[in-house]
Amino acid sequence: MVGIPNRGAGFYLSADIDGVDGSGFSVPTSAALSITGSLGLVARIAPDSWSSGLQQGIISKSSTDDNQRSYRWGLLTDGTPVLRWSTGGANTGTATATAAHSFTPGQAAWVGVTCDTVSGNVKFWNGGTGVTPTWVQHGTTVAAAFPGSFASTSPLLLGAGFVLSGVAMREVLNGILYSAAVYNGVGANTSPVQGTKVFEVNGVFGPGNTFTSATAHTVTKLGGVGNYQVDFGRNITSCTAVATIGPSGAGSAAGEVYVADRSGNVEAVFVDTNDSAGAAANLPFRLIVVC
Fold this sequence. Notes:
The protein has strands spanning 2-4, 6-7, 10-11, 15-18, 24-27, 39-47, 56-63, 68-75, 81-85, 93-96, 109-115, 121-128, 136-143, 156-158, 162-164, 168-170, 174-184, 196-202, 210-212, 218-221, 227-231, 240-245, 256-261, 268-274, 285-290. With 291 residues, it is an all-beta fold. The protein starts with a strand and ends with a strand. The strands form 5 sheets. Strands 10-9-8-7-14-5-19-20-21-24-23 form an 11-stranded antiparallel beta sheet, with no helix packed on it.
């Protein structure tokens, strides 16, 4: 079963990622995301455990086995934030925060990191647990001699630490990812949001971007309104697909949903959502395929 919460022009991003290898969100690489100088990364997350005993990725642009590493930000096993980078795609540098986060399990909080090529310093940030952040520096400044990062071909990963051969995500966040942003530059570097914002997902996951589950199911927001592709990674032409309007968690939604075989892809179905008047609309839906 695939449940896809949705709002606006794409997937509603308050998605509960299961912490299993292969899950996470990916965004195609672009020149804007291939930042080689100073950068800032920001996210609002709610891990099931901030100190899970496993490393958990937050925002990364790193493909390891083909030496396409740029930057990689996440949590160590005890909840301490860490940033890794590469200047050539294969080599890595590391900056580790001087303290672990102390949020309670499942608590949503804003976190950030800035990397300054002028000073070489890396700063980690805590934005608190409110709906909007109030930024304070987390721990002390790390004198990491940050030189910038490699312009890799890796996709941008949300809720994962790195990808193998551009496909299988690893160091997956076990919890909810609410929003994420990438900034080119750090400005005065007195908060993580003073550079030029080049990417943001805040409640909407847009056309062309993909959510992948650990069982190899992928959901892609297609162009237009209310159009989706759900790929199950196996031939489903002899199976029956049924969908209903409604979010993956509590709540309800009115509207209509249609499911059809995906033209040209025997492993996928096409999903079309509409409001109660029959007009195309981006709506949350649940889908089950029985074989």
